[in-house]
């Protein structure tokens, strides 16, 4: 009987290899590793590095083998138990600031914004607040410029987990989107400044 469980992350864009591995390994402990052999198969240098860091952070012991065409296989060997954070225990006093609908420029910038926000769903900790200003409000509203259906669903899930979502009121007004907010609440300048000043740190994207 083959007790091998393979996790295939070949050709997946960042951050999908780590996200897929994290989902597949959820709840896997030392006992499960004795019953099954877990293998992760990938084919890009970045996914190998990202997966290695993720596995080390989660307490997994592993070996890496290499094949043709840049392919690699990570075989899990053991795991040190790690206490998981749940619900609002994951919230830390940090604030994320999105100043645009992109992280950087062009099509890649849109992909990065999408990827960063989706990755938050799988993070061990979450920011207390996320603020969208300027063109960032295009990520939280019904508009014709940005296809944000996936991002809105991610933000709604983050709200359920205790993250506060704010969109700049003046920015919504400027883009005529005040009545088209799809997630979170409308913020104001005073509230935004107070949130920035009272957060332990501000992460600007």
UniProtKB/TrEMBL annotation:
Classification via Pfam families: DsrE, TusA
Protein name (Swiss-Prot/TrEMBL): Sulfurtransferase-like selenium metabolism protein YedF
Keyword Kinase: no
Record key words, sorted: Transferase
GO molecular-function term, one example from the UniProt record: transferase activity
Superkingdom classification of source: Bacteria
Domain UPF0033: 5-77
The keyword Transferase is assigned to this record: yes
Protein source organism: Helicobacter typhlonius
Lineage: Bacteria, Pseudomonadati, Campylobacterota, Epsilonproteobacteria, Campylobacterales
């Amino acid at each position: 009987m083959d007790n091998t469980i393979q996790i295939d992350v070949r050709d997946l864009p960042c951050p999908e290899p780590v996200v897929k591995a994290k989902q597949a390994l959820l709840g896997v402990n030392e006992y499960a590793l004795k019953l099954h052999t877990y293998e992760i198969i990938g084919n890009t240098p970045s996914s190998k590095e990202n997966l290695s860091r993720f596995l080390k952070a989660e307490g997994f012991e592993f070996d890496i083998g290499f094949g043709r065409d840049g392919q690699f296989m990570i075989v899990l060997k053991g795991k040190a138990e790690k206490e998981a954070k749940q619900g609002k225990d994951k919230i830390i006093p940090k604030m994320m600031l999105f100043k645009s609908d992109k992280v950087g420029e062009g099509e890649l910038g849109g992909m990065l914004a999408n990827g960063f926000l989706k990755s938050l769903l799988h993070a061990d900790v979450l920011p207390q607040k996320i603020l969208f200003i300027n063109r960032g409000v295009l990520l939280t509203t019904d508009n014709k410029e940005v296809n944000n259906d996936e991002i809105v669903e991610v933000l709604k899930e983050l709200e359920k987990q205790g993250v506060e979502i704010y969109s700049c009121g003046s920015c919504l007004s400027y883009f005529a989107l005040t009545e088209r907010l799809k997630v979170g609440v409308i913020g104001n300048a005073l509230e935004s400044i107070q949130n920035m000043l009272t957060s332990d740190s501000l992460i600007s994207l």
